[in-house]
Amino acid sequence: MPKITLPDGSIRSFDAPVTALQVAENISLGLAKAAVAAKINGVQKDIYTLITDDAKLEILTLKNEEGLDVMRHTLTAQVLAKALKELYKGTLLAIGPTVENGFYYDVLSEHKISVDDFPKIEAKMQDILATKATVKRHMLDKQAAIELFKNKGEKYKVDIIENAKEDDTTEKGKISVYWQNEDKFVDLCRGPHLQSLEQIPANAFKLTKVSGAYWRGDANNEQLQRIYGVAFADKKKLDAYLLMIEEAEKRDHRKIGKELGLFHLQEEAVGQVFWHQKGWTLYKTLENYIRDKITAQNYIEVKTPILVDRKLWEQSGHWSKFGQNMFVVPAAEENDSTLAVKPMNCPCHVQIFKQSTVSYRELPIRMAEYLN
Fold it and tell me: Which of 298, 356, 307 is nearest to 330 (CA)?
């Protein structure tokens, strides 16, 4: 019979297999009511997951970040997705993950969604929340899941299932899907989700922006519409976040730079700056000020390539630790090199140091570099 170890180290024994929710009820009814999901042996699970063996258990609520993440996940996958399907007929669902403070959903729709549509979408989401529908997980055979979403015309879901790995949306060869109130709305998802939409604070979310996104991040695929939103445990926290964003936008360097005629950005040069005369004058003034300072500290100024072969980053250790976050220029041909924008200067400065023999009397050697 299972022995459940709680975060404080205490152990609760049960005479038969027990769900995470039942353990929460055994601790206190208040905890059971607040519970949104569980962490069993370090893995997030639905609150009604059955525990058959000894396990470590943490009950997640909206008071912690992991509980908030589960709530946001349910809000995008079960509420925003359903609202978009009901409002804009023929809409196809792609993916709907969580991000910091919120969520997004990628969809293909004939209707071009804009921020002007947000009040209408949010109202529909409120209607869906008002149903207090239950959200239930089902495990399907892979072929059954493919047929389910094929019949619904959800080609992106079919693509995900056909390429699913064991640690993705699968579990022992099964595919995880979630039905809402056991009705027609179903979404492919590894979970966990809230057991009921009633647990989502109805006044603590807001849609924020819409952008374009290619399916699987490949420009050769169809462009989807990505709808972003934020959600919190209560309206007070939502309002505080929105105020913070509003104040930050007033100080946005992109906005200020354009208003003052210092510089501007545009889509044709993503991540790069068009410096105007006044802005470039300020830039050079600051650069010269720093140059005087580092020269006084015996730094030597050098210049190294911005794009460097992946081999160097593998050698330095950056690739294994930060490779997924680096800006990469993929190889055009099979035998071509993969290049990456340098995230820092030190590996390149080491290459300069290696070009000659240096006496210990010449150390330390301090190198400085200005980037573009």
Answer: 307
Question: Where, residue-wise, is CATH 3.10.20.30 in the chain?
Answer: 3-60
d(CA 7, CA 271): 44
2, 6, 66: which is closest to 36 by C-alpha? 66
pLDDT tens readout for residues 88-104:
999 999 999 999 999 99
The two tokens of residue 56 are 């470590």
pTM for the whole structure: 0.75
> Dihedral (C-alpha) 50, 52, 57, 61: value to the nearest 10 degrees?
10
Give CA separation, 169 vs 50, 76, 151, 174, 188, in Å.
19, 17, 19, 8, 8
Q: Which residues contact 239 (CB under 8 A, 6 or more apart)?
A: none
CATH 3.30.980.10 boundaries in the chain:
66-247
Measured CA to CA in angstroms, residue 189 lies from 39, 68, 76 at distances of 17, 17, 11
pLDDT digits (tens, 9 = 90+) for 104-144: 999 999 999 999 999 999 999 999 999 999 999 999 999 99
- CATH homologous superfamily of 66-247: Threonyl-trna Synthetase; Chain A, domain 2 (3.30.980.10)
> Tokens representing 177?
């899907």
The C-alpha atoms of residue 128 and residue 132 are separated, in whole angstroms, by 8
- CA–CA dist 211, 226 (Å, integer): 5
How is residue 77 annotated by DSSP? I
SS3 322: helix
Class of domain 3-60: alpha beta
DSSP secondary structure, 202-218, as one string: TTSEEEEEEEEEEGGG-
Tokens of 155: 């080609």
